[in-house]
Amino acid sequence: MRHFLTYIAALLCVVGAWAQDSTSVTRSRLDSMQYLSNVTVFAQKYYREVIPAQTLNGKQLERLNSHSVADAIRYFAGVQIKDYGGVGGIKTIDIRSMGTNHLGVFYDGIQLGNPQNGQIDLGRFSLDNIGEISIYNGQKSEIFQPARDYGSAGTVYLRTRRPRFEGDKRNNLNITIRTGSFGLANPSLRWEHRFSPTVSMLINAEYTYATGQYHFRYRKRFSDGVVAWDTTAVRKNGDLNSWRVEGAIFGYPTNGKWNAKFYYYDSERGIPGAIVNNVWKTAQRQWDRNFFVQGSWQKKLSERYEMMLNGKYARDYMRYLNPDTTLMYIDNTFHQDEIYVSSANKFNIMPDWDVNISVDYKWNHLNSNLVNFVYPIRHTVLAALATARTWWRFKGQASLLYTFVNDRYSSRFGEQVIEHHSKKFNQFTPAVFLSFQPFEHHDLNLRAFYKRIFRMPTFNDLYYTDIGNARLQPEYATQWNVGLMYQRYYNTGYLSGMKFTADAYYNTVRDKIIAVPKGTGQYRWMMMNIGKVKIVGIDITARLAFKLPHGIVLDGGLNYTFQKARDYTNPADTLDGGTYKGQIAYIPWHSGSATLHVAWRSIDFNYSCIYVGERYHNSANILANHEEPWYTHDLSASYSFAMGAVKAKVTGELNNIFNQQYDVIQNYPMPGRNFRIILKLDL
Amino acid sequence: MTIKTSHISHNIIATLFALLVVLAGCREEQLIFIPEEVEITTPQFTDVQGFYLLNEGNMGSNKATLDYYNFRTGRYSRNIFAMANPSVPKEMGDVGNDLGIYGSKLYAVINCSNKIDVIDKKTVKKIGQIDIPNCRFIKFYGGYAYVTSYAGPVVITPDYKQRGYVAKIDTATLQVVDTCLVGYQPDELDIVNGKIYVANSGGYMVPNYENTISVIDIDSFTEVDRIEIEINLQCCKADPRGVLWISSRGDYYENQSRLFAYDTRHNRLVKTFDTSVSSMWMDGDSLFVIGVQFSYVTMKNEISYAVINTATLEQVSNNFITDGTDAEIAMPYSVAVNPITKDIYVTDAKDYISPGRLYCFSPQGVKQWDVRTGDIPAHFAFLGDNINEK
Predict the structure, then answer these.
(1) In contact, B317 and B294? CB cutoff 8 Å
(2) What is the pLDDT of residue B28?
(3) Residues of B numbered 117-176 whose beta carbons fall under 8 angstroms of chain A's beta carbons: which are they?
(4) CA-to-CA distance for B164 and B152, rounded, in angstroms?
(5) CA gap B248, A440 in Å, rounded
(6) With an 8 Å Cβ cutoff, are A371 and B131 in contact?
(7) What are the tens digits of pLDDT across the range B68-113?
């Protein structure tokens, strides 16, 4: 006990530890699995979420051979990734088959918005400055949060690293250099400075250059195994040139905390395109500039009242160019702005009963040089009322979210405004989370949740010239989940800890927004609310940690996901090759991942594996639409050493060691065997 | 106690790993698709042996495939090109846009693969390939194939514009021997009386569409005239009298898709029909027209199946499907008529990404059979003896 208190006290003294939000204790507990298992038993009482997240942090993240957030997220249960391949290829994720647009991605507590297409390319977020990734099904079941945090069917929280200072150090400098396959040159620099025991800052800059070139091989065989054709080529036009600069300042006054940060990302990339017969390279280019400033302030104003304010301004620029003279010339630019303010207010009614009221306002705007563009503006007001109650060994949380959306746009013909439009929408959506610990002395939790939520049609869905459909309604997702979590830590013996979770779920998505062919002419589409999907799934995760003789630490994790995600859109389409009740596109029935880590003194060794089972690229589950399973095995080893005051770490990674040639998305070949070398210097 | 627990844990982890290994064992190398053959109906013995159907495949999917229906066996075969040509990497390619038979060869115009596959019409073996970027439609005359392409020279000032052209291909050597510039984004073409008529769309220049037909003198292979018809032209088929049937896609807003009859003998527009056109087929004096017009009022596609008598210039039917089967067809995409039996074939492209369907109707418009096709079934070519193979 005393040991624990000492630890906590030490933690509080170190600026940065307290920087973690209210779930920090849970986190340090997860962190500590390999190192401080005796602490964890006590920490148990501190986690406030009814259903904790799947989390990857610090060292675990470093060990996953991942370049981007998207690569790392593949290791979570229930998640499917759409990866167009390569360093610059788009990577989006989908939680429990509900679609990318139902996922909210939060960066240091505030959502990354993209009202234009609703998708966040997680391949664009390098892990260089990420300290932790957490993923929640439903929502973070911790009530003291902005209303926007209640507004997605699934949520990913990306948390940047917080400054930490050893002893009385006032400055930390970190230099990281990464290089490897794909012509990668990726230096980054990070400077942390402590102004006072309660105020610190950091600046982090990263540059990434990659030619994005890699060999890929397509091959087909006859059924007797004889090769029919076999071709190898180099993936072209996958180059990337990007800058990222981030800065933040953190303050930890008594009974509160605040931070402010800016983020700037500037990139140019090639869009490699589909590999089809007679076309082995493309010429399309894309430029992105993303900028935001955001701030957060939180204080416990009295014993019973705590307040949090958040604000953000974001501006995003995107240019898409198709300079191929044999195709339609396209040079489109898009500008988006977002202004966001939020107030969350938590009242402690009784020791075991909290109520939170949050109100958010968000303003979005999109400009483009598209022909007849409607220049949409969206005002969103979100209000959430939530309550959390602990009773005996039960924990519960209920929330009700009110959403009001007002879209304003003007239909135009050329420059001439024909008509101004204003569309209003409002809706209440509930969520309930419960957990129960049946045995007082065993950390076994049974848990369940229900959530109903919708996603607004994006600006592209509604207003993209010709394709958009201004009459679209939101797309609804309903989730039911039951599951359990068991964990245990040991002070003696080889096994130092274990954690096991299993969840079963049933989700429905209705009024799903999908593109439907329209009218005369080739490939003209209209967005419609006609899709319907029912998803039955099971997510299982297991983690074990061992402390073996000779100071060897070993830990491993396994995730497995089963999903039956069936297309109920068109009940008439039941003939042979029909789509009704077919497994939806790119969702495997079986998928999973495994990780194994061994540490001995200054040496770390890691193995990780991703498995994605057979899929179809269309709900018509016929042979012609079949996609083979794929699985990659990655290895890495690192060695830490000191050179005077400089701490150094060298890591070598070998990815896809068996050089498997696979597509995640049809005709988008993924890289085969590739390597990366990382040198980190801390001073 | 601890040791026991860790044993159990070891077992758990071992089991889970084993499970993963078992799952991991499922990957097979992709096989060349064995063509799927299905028996549809009783064999039929006429001069029409069968027909090829080119499935476009959605853009980027590389799923242009060739199907064949054999009247003599009553059997329908899907994806016969891949098996007949197993050594061709990535099979037929991306977006089949037109199909035609000339002499002993079948020509498949594959738009996004920038080429025309030249195929033996009996064995389906690929004989050669003609590379033409962004190629669109094909017609034959006097030993040459004429192909429209969007990918002509680029004019930067004052606006970026890409001229289209017609390529002249020697069908003996499969070489492009000449090209002739036409309007912007030329689509279908037809040949009447020593002249090639090309429907220019201007589809890349929204909202400044093209509105002309280019007239090429076939001997000098130069553009000799432009005829204004309507914006965004697409189909262009000549009837036996030399009247061109030309469709406009409209601008998808105020201007609806329409059909025009242009008499090349008198160089004048003889009639305009307010029927929307997405596909048409000329059979003798009958023009079969499928129209799909999106209505912003009902937010649905309004579909028509019209027949026009090209001799009288009158619409004789507004629904050639008489048994109600039209209710099953989500997105009619193409129509063809058997030159002997006059059976009518209609394809359903559904949502463009799942497998389509082919329906056969009797001349009276009653469904005879239907079968699954590839994705976006679209272009027909009839194979036979003593028939105009198209």
Answers:
(1) no
(2) 67
(3) 129, 131, 133-134, 150-151, 154, 160, 162
(4) 5
(5) 76
(6) no
(7) 999 999 999 999 999 899 999 999 999 999 999 999 999 999 999 9
Is residue B61 within 8 angstroms of chain A, CB to CB? Answer: yes
- The tens digit of pLDDT for each residue in A94-104 reads 999 999 899 99
Nearest to A38 by CA among A489, A444, A486: A489
Asked if residues A498 and B10 have their Cβ atoms less than 8 Å apart, the reply is no
Read off the pLDDT of residues B23-68 as tens digits, 9 standing for 90 and up.
444 576 677 777 789 999 999 999 999 999 999 999 999 999 999 9
Task: For residue A331, give the chain B residue with the closest CA.
Answer: B160
Identify the domain containing residue A493 by its residue range: 2-682
CA dihedral B20, B21, B24, B28 (to 10 degrees): -160
Predicted complex ipTM: 0.90
Closest residue by Cα to residue B55 from A577, A221, A238, A352: A577
Please state, in angstroms and rounded to a whole number, the distance separating the CA atoms of residues A583 and A322. 34
pLDDT in tens, A62-111: 887 788 898 889 889 999 988 888 888 888 889 999 998 999 999 999 99
Q: Measured between beta carbons, which residues in chain A are less than 8 angstroms from residue B28?
A: 628
Tell me the C-alpha to C-alpha distance, in Å, between residue B377 and each of A168, A554, B8, B55, B100.
Answer: 73, 57, 57, 4, 15
Beta bridge partners of A83: A91
* Residue B17: predicted pLDDT: 54
Contact A277 B352 (CB under 8 A): no
Q: Cβ atoms within 10 A of the Cβ of A515, count? A: 18
Q: What share of chain A is helix, strand, coil (3-state, %, to 5)?
A: 10, 60, 30
Q: Tokens in use for A127? A: 């892990």
Supply the pTM of this predicted model. 0.90
Asked if the Cβ–Cβ distance from A517 to B34 is below 8 Å, we say no
Q: What is the domain-level CATH number for residue A66? A: 2.40.170.20
For residue B188, what are its two tokens? 């279908």
Confidence of residue A26 (pLDDT cuts 50, 70, 90): very low
| Distance from the A242 Cα atom to the nearest Cα atom in chain B, whole angstroms | 27
Superfamily of domain B4-278: YVTN repeat-like/Quinoprotein amine dehydrogenase (2.130.10.10)
Check: CB of residue B337 under 8 Å from CB of residue B349.
Answer: no
pLDDT in tens, A281-310: 899 999 999 999 999 999 999 999 999 999
Spatial separation of the C-alpha atoms in residues A672 and B1, rounded to whole Å: 46
- Count: domains in chain A: 1
Average pLDDT, chain A: 88
**Rounded Cα–Cα distance for residues A339 and A334 (Å):** 17
CB-closest option in B86, B90, B151 to A325: B151
Smallest Cβ distance to B301: which of A222, A471, A518? A518
Contact between B355 and B38 under an 8 Å Cβ cutoff? The reply is: no
CA distance A29 to chain B (A): 21
Tell whether the torsion through CA atoms of B301, B302, B307 and B308 is positive or negative. Answer: negative
pLDDT (mean) for A606-620? 94
Give the rounded percent of residues in chain A with a pLDDT score beyond 90: 67
On chain A, the residues whose CB falls within 8 A of the CB of B94 are: 274, 276-277, 279
d(CA A499, CA A489): 9
Q: How near does any CA of chain A get to the CA of B359, in Å?
A: 13
Contacts of A556 in chain B (CB under 8 A): 13
CA dist B322 and B308 (Å) reads 16
Q: Residues A206-245: pLDDT tens digits?
A: 999 999 999 999 998 888 888 889 999 999 999 999 999 9
Per-residue pLDDT reduced to its tens digit, A518-541: 876 666 888 889 899 999 999 999
Question: Do A609 and A632 touch, CB atoms closer than 8 A?
Answer: yes
